[in-house]
Amino acid sequence: MQLSLAALAVLLPIVAQAANFDVAVGQEGLTFTPPNVPAVPGDTVTFTFYPKNHTVTQSSFAAPCTPLEGGEHSGFRPTEAGPLEDTFVFDVTSADPAWFYCAQGQHCQGGMVFAVNPPAEGNTYETFVANAAAAESGPLPEGPEGGAPPAGPSGGDTSAGPSAPGPRPTPSGSAPGGNAPSGSGPNAPPATRPAGAEKFAVPAGGLLAGLIAAVVAL
Ligand SMILES: [Cu+2]
């Protein structure tokens, strides 16, 4: 009994302090705002997406721009005018550091990275940013949220995500008059995303990057 009370005395303050951190994604350029947060288990981090098209993807300190196996991935969240109502919530379950990036184009290399509980020394957030600048972009998880990203208009998209080498499945519910994906476009948006995503410009390097990504994928 005494032990239980002692445990309660330790746990109660933690429960009482459970907090949510609001993080803006892309509101001020290629940024997470704030870029890192101190959190304890039980806290949440709520990401709100701003134009044009970003992700929140969990990675690791060692590979800043590669999805962590079994990690979190919001999928691409295109919006013409932010903030997007459809937020993404990360549940903090550990006091250990958790590392994130945006998987759009070269956003990660451009410094669009985020951390929960980055250490003050050693594997710091600043070092994570520096490592990201020179990091390879790893392939995203398969599935409707992880497919080829709509081309980012703001990122110098020289290394598009893992475009599927084969024809993409054609959405059955294409909007009338919309530009249905033909299977070759590197920027075909997921069917469930706003039609506005189709209006994103395709950088000149988009097709080439898509081909390179396809070759790499093989
Ligand atoms: Cu981004």
Describe the structure.
Keywords: Signal. This is Cupredoxin. It comes from Coprinopsis marcescibilis. By secondary structure, this protein is an alpha+beta fold. The chain has a domain of 132 residues: Sandwich (Immunoglobulin-like), CATH 2.60.40. Helices cover 17% and strands 16% of the residues. It is built from three helices and ten strands. Strand 1 and strand 2 form a beta hairpin. The longest helix is centred in the first third of the chain and has 16 residues. The N and C termini lie far apart (60 Å). The chain binds copper (II) ion. The site of copper (II) ion has 7 residues, from loops.
CATH topology of the domain at 2-133: Immunoglobulin-like
User: What fraction of residues sit in β-strands?
Assistant: 15-25%
Number of DSSP E strands = 10
pLDDT < 50 runs, ≥5 residues: 147-218
Average pLDDT works out at 74
Q: Indicate the CATH class of the domain at 2-133.
A: Mainly Beta
What is the terminal separation in angstroms? 60 Å
Q: Main β-sheet: number of strands, strand sense, barrel status?
A: 4 strands, mixed
Biased composition (Low complexity): 171-186
Protein name: Cupredoxin
Keywords: Signal
Region (Disordered): 136-197
